[in-house]
Amino acid sequence: MFAAERRQLILEMVRANGAVSLRELARVVQTSEVTVRRDVRALEAEGLLDRRHGGAVLPGGFTRESGFPQKSHLATAEKTAIADLAAGLVEEGEAIVVGAGTTTQELARRLARVPGLTVVTNSLLVAQALAHANRVEVVMTGGTLRGSNYALVGSGAEQSLQGLRVSRAFLSGSGLTAERGLSTSNMLSASVDRALVQAAAEVVVLADHTKLGTDTMFQTVPTDLITRLVTDEPPPHDDRAATELQALADQGVQIAVTGANGNSGGEPGPAARRAPLPGPRRGHVPLRSAGLGEQSAGSDRGRVADLRRR
Fold first, then answer.
1. What is the per-residue pLDDT for 74?
2. Rounded-to-integer distance, Cα 210 and Cα 232, Å
3. What is the topology classification, in CATH, of domain 3-61?
4. How many alpha carbons lie under 13 Å from residue 233 in its C-beta half-sphere?
5. Cα(42)–Cα(56) distance, rounded to whole angstroms?
6. Which fold is adopted by the domain 71-257?
7. Who contacts 226 (Cβ-Cβ below 8 Å, separation ≥6)?
8. What are phi and psi of 302, to 5 degrees?
9. Contact 254/230 with Cβ under 8 angstroms?
10. Closest Cα to residue 151, out of 117, 183, 127, 182?
11. pTM for the full model?
């Protein structure tokens, strides 16, 4: 494929999806990430897109939100590995909330095997993934259907979450930075996500490396409320994502990183080992959820690579 054809295809992908990782671009145009990075630099010089933390985004600073069909084909291997690792945090008999998103949908497919689980969600896709699971109770919020991501939003969804208390919330978003925390591009989605956070004793963010360092319009979870981040190992050249991981760890976020090449389990990757080792937040006390018994912030499975302060 000639350089002009490659760059046109790269530009079309970014315009369609809002943000695309270099790894995904290289896979689609069937060339190396080094070549794609050179193409992205050339397109940036023409003002057609911006480089951002191991990927390319639409010009203008804040990325727009992609629709579900586009998101479902981005970083699929990374999302699968993240979901595998996150599922190991969930214990039999827990009650949790799971927000909307393609990564949380992957998580829900794995939660179908956890007996005695209660899942509260505003996502039709999460509910569908659990619809036929034995011994898993699904509780849906009310609200208005937002067709672009198959989620229930609005005052009905937020009101249905009032008075709810569960052990953990699993959320994804459009971007994650140490400065602002988790963010998304839609105001209604952000408002419901904030209500989900208020219902949980712990907040677990699921975000692949392409979202690290990306800041979008509406903040959903400030960094000091994020208990844990489950992510994939950034590529070796992606220093910005590794730096963002370190900054998040500095602020007390426990970090679990999937193995190299998107495989879950095993030892933490280089990005995880470079990060400081944060301990529990000062003043953090495990909370008791209704009907659940005490949930410890450290009750993770052995294959989760948490970073704790030395």
1. 53
2. 9
3. Arc Repressor Mutant, subunit A (1.10.10)
4. 20
5. 12
6. Rossmann fold (3.40.50)
7. 181, 182, 203, 205, 248, 253
8. -60, -25
9. no
10. 127
11. 0.66
Secondary structure in 3-state letters for 196-250: HHHCEEEEEEECCHHHECCCCCEEEECHHHCCEEEECCCCCCCHHHHHHHHHHHH
Contact 216, 185 (CB under 8 A): yes
pLDDT band, very low/low/confident/very high, at 129 (cuts 50, 70, 90): very high
Q: What angle is formed at CA 97 by the lines to CA 94 and CA 99, rounded to 5 degrees?
A: 150
Residue 179 has pLDDT above 90, yes or no: yes
**Residue bearing tokens 């990183």:** 257
Amino acid at 74: L
Domain ranges of the chain: 3-61, 71-257
**Is the distance from CB of 149 to CB of 161 less than 8 angstroms?**
no
Tokens coding 24: 């995904």
Nearest alpha carbon to residue 105 among 87, 79, 125: 125
Closest C-alpha among 67, 73, 78, 66 to residue 28? 73
Q: What Rg value do the Cα atoms of the chain yield, rounded?
A: 19
Return the residue matching tokens 């695309």. 20
